[in-house]
């Protein structure tokens, strides 16, 4: 194939934002995504898109008005409670950080990118500097490609591109979120809706937390945050598909002294998914440049969730697109150098904030979080 200047690995919000911005600037690219098609992965929770970061990227991409058609401005509120159900603060109404389901954001971006510029079913298995000193990419379907001037790893926490640039690997935080949902058909849906309301409800206590967040469909997604060994759900010590087993684990080992309001969320939870929380470290930031490669989003600066993840990823895409347009595809080394210098500063900040947020959200009581919200 005649290789375009830029290969983007990963078709999530980060990679697709970069693709759309390059499209707007007339810079040739291809996106390589592991999903079989745009319809094969319809999962993911709700994202709050901030005015000065994520929305700015969408504005530059010519998609802000379309975003506002899907954005949920009534879901910006945040309620904090203790483990007995006492509401401590209700805040966030009117913030310029409306929610949108991840699947809707992804579709919005996909619709703005020519279909021929996305290669579905391409799972990257290896990336390297080839014999000609240009990037070489290997995919699980047997395809091997080269000839790109720049490969951008927007391939998430377990990026295959990252290893070209650094030995850094994500470290487990000691905490895992077990995700489940309360759909409208659930017998406790009406009670959940009346108590959780719009936006996000967080209960903190005894080193654990429960997050309940309204989705675009009106259903509620729950995250049960617990301290647990890294591989409990991975090596089948506990089968995550055995719903009753997971319910009993949560009720007996972690949330036995929580109020019925929260225990009922567990009793009626279905289709659990384990989400172990990993992070890179601030010491990992600042790798030496490798000609023809860079990273963006979680691939570059995976952090504990702190409300900034997708917004910083989209900001990475915006800044990188600006630098590529400024210096041109014949001077990508300079573009990447300037992009990474700025990105590293933001990366150190978000990784540090994520680690601080971990201590606040998994505290013995909600007071540290209350102080943060009240300050």
Description:
With 375 residues, the protein is of the alpha/beta class. It has helices spanning 13-24, 54-60, 64-70, 102-110, 162-165, 189-196, 243-254, 260-267, 298-301, 309-327, 332-361, 367-374; strands at residues 6-9, 29-32, 46-48, 78-82, 87-91, 99-101, 118-119, 124-129, 135-139, 144-146, 150-153, 171-182, 200-205, 208-214, 220-227, 270-279, 293-295. It is built from 12 helices and 17 strands. The strands form 4 sheets. It has a 7-stranded mixed β-sheet, sandwiched between helices. Strands 7-2-1-11-17 form a 5-stranded parallel β-sheet. The mean pLDDT is 95.
Per DSSP, what share of the residues sits in E-state strands of 2 or more residues?
15-25%
**Total count of strands:** 17
Radius of gyration from CA coordinates: 21 Å
Sheet with the most strands, sense and barrel status: 7 strands, mixed
Order of helices and strands: EHEEHHEEEHEEEEEHEHEEEHHEEHHHH
Tally the helices: what do you get?
Answer: 12
Shape summary: globular
As residue ranges, the low-confidence spans are: none
**What is the arithmetic mean of pLDDT?**
95
SS class: alpha/beta
Calculate the terminal CA-CA distance, rounded to whole Å: 56 Å
State the helical fraction.
Answer: 25-40%
The largest beta-sheet arranges its strands as 5-4-13-14-15-12-16
Sequence-ordered SSE layout with sheet pairings:
Elements: E1 6-9, H1 13-24, E2 29-32, E3 46-48, H2 54-60, H3 64-70, E4 78-82, E5 87-91, E6 99-101, H4 102-110, E7 118-119, E8 124-129, E9 135-139, E10 144-146, E11 150-153, H5 162-165, E12 171-182, H6 189-196, E13 200-205, E14 208-214, E15 220-227, H7 243-254, H8 260-267, E16 270-279, E17 293-295, H9 298-301, H10 309-327, H11 332-361, H12 367-374
Parallel strand pairs: 1-2, 1-11, 2-7, 4-13, 11-17
Antiparallel strand pairs: 3-6, 4-5, 8-9, 9-10, 12-15, 12-16, 13-14, 14-15
Helix pairs in contact: 1-4, 1-10, 2-10, 10-11
Protein name: FAD-binding domain-containing protein
GO molecular function: FAD binding; monooxygenase activity
InterPro entries: FAD-bd, FAD/NAD-bd_sf
């Amino acid at each position: 194939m005649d290789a375009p200047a830029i290969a983007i690995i990963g078709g999530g919000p980060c990679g697709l934002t970069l693709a759309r911005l390059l499209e707007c600037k007339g810079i040739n690219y291809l996106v390589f995504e592991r999903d079989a098609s745009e319809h094969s992965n319809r999962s993911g929770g709700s994202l709050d898109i901030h005015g000065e970061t994520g929305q700015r990227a969408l504005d530059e991409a010519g998609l802000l008005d379309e975003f506002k058609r899907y954005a949920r401005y009534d879901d910006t509120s945040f309620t904090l409670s203790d483990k007995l159900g006492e509401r401590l603060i209700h805040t966030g109404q009117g913030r310029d950080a409306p929610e949108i389901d991840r699947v809707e954001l992804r579709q919005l971006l996909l619709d703005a990118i020519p279909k021929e510029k996305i290669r579905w079913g391409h799972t990257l298995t290896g990336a390297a500097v080839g014999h000609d000193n240009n990037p070489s990419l290997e995919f699980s379907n047997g395809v091997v490609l080269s000839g790109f001037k720049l490969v951008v790893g927007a391939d998430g926490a377990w990026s295959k591109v990252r290893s070209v640039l650094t030995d850094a690997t994500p470290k487990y935080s000691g905490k895992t979120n077990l995700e489940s949902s309360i759909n409208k058909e659930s017998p406790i849906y009406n009670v959940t809706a009346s108590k959780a309301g719009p936006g996000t409800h967080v209960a903190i206590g005894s080193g654990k937390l429960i997050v309940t967040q309204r989705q675009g469909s009106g259903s509620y997604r729950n995250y049960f945050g617990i301290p647990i060994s890294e591989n409990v759900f991975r090596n089948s010590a506990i089968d995550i598909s055995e719903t009753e087993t997971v319910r009993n684990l949560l009720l007996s080992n972690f949330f036995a002294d929580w109020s019925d309001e929260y225990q009922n969320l567990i009793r009626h939870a279905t289709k659990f998914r384990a989400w172990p929380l990993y992070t890179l470290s601030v010491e990992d930031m600042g790798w030496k440049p490798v000609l023809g490669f860079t990273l963006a989003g979680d691939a570059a600066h995976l952090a504990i969730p702190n409300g900034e993840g997708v917004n910083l990823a989209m900001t990475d895409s915006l800044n990188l697109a600006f630098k590529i347009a400024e210096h041109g595809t014949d001077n990508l080394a300079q573009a990447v150098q300037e992009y990474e210098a700025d990105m590293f500063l933001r990366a150190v900040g978000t990784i540090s904030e994520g680690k601080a947020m971990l201590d606040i959200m998994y505290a013995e009581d909600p007071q540290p979080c209350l102080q943060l919200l009240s300050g």
